[in-house]
């Protein structure tokens, strides 16, 4: 694979400020340099996916997420390999990967770059992305497809959802999370189930009308966002709650923010609507 354009240019690090020495303990992954990117990691990507994670020891958020990536690499037992790109030490590599901000990650699959995400996400959502990467790689003859293991509580939850018994499904997902707190699909399933519980029996038009007529009632705005979400209006739900965060203060502002974050967990991290909403939330908060 040829190097991306502008490989020799340096990344602008001015926005990171002075070093804060937030990195502690062993650093996960293989350190990526301009040399081993070409001689080791690109060839490795022909046998299994390689995740290149761009970070800086001056960014606590990226350090924390790098540690999460290291734990995930171990849990996937060799299904993919982690390479870490310190953008301070390797600005040429960061530029080659078209790094704009950190944390930032791309996948190498059969010597091809696949952008993944450019901000921090919860572990459950990262696992979903990694599973997609492994599946995509296997379709191209690189590595094996992920083996889907269905837990008994998950089977119970799915059966309950199919029967419309959301409360039983919620209990089943909670039991699974009590046994396996990091189970990504259980976290997602629980969030989806709780959304269904909150919106059961409600009518979209009625809820939207009530929320429109009572703009000061936060509970109605949260309910309207839920209804928009469950009916496919992802962008409308996000915009509604970002606006609530902008307009409210104190406990109500926090409540709107937390509700919005719970809806974020229901959307694919690569979805452009989620990226835009996260940016809008950051602007609303700061």
Q: Tell me, what is the CATH class of the largest domain?
A: Alpha Beta
Q: What is the H/E string?
A: EHEHEHEEHHHHHHHHH
Largest sheet, in brief, is:
5 strands, mixed
How much is the average pLDDT? 88
Low-confidence stretches: 1-24
Number of discrete domains = 3
CATH topology-level fold name of the largest domain: Glutaredoxin
Strand percent estimate: 5-15%
Over the alpha carbons, how many angstroms does the gyration radius reach? 21 Å
Provide the helix percentage: 40-55%
Q: How many helices?
A: 12
Shape: globular
* CATH structural architecture of the largest domain: 3-Layer(aba) Sandwich
The first-to-last residue Cα distance is 41 Å
Strand arrangement across the biggest beta sheet: 1-3-2-4-5
Number of strands: 5
The computed structural class is alpha/beta
- Fourth-tier CATH superfamily name of the largest domain: Glutaredoxin
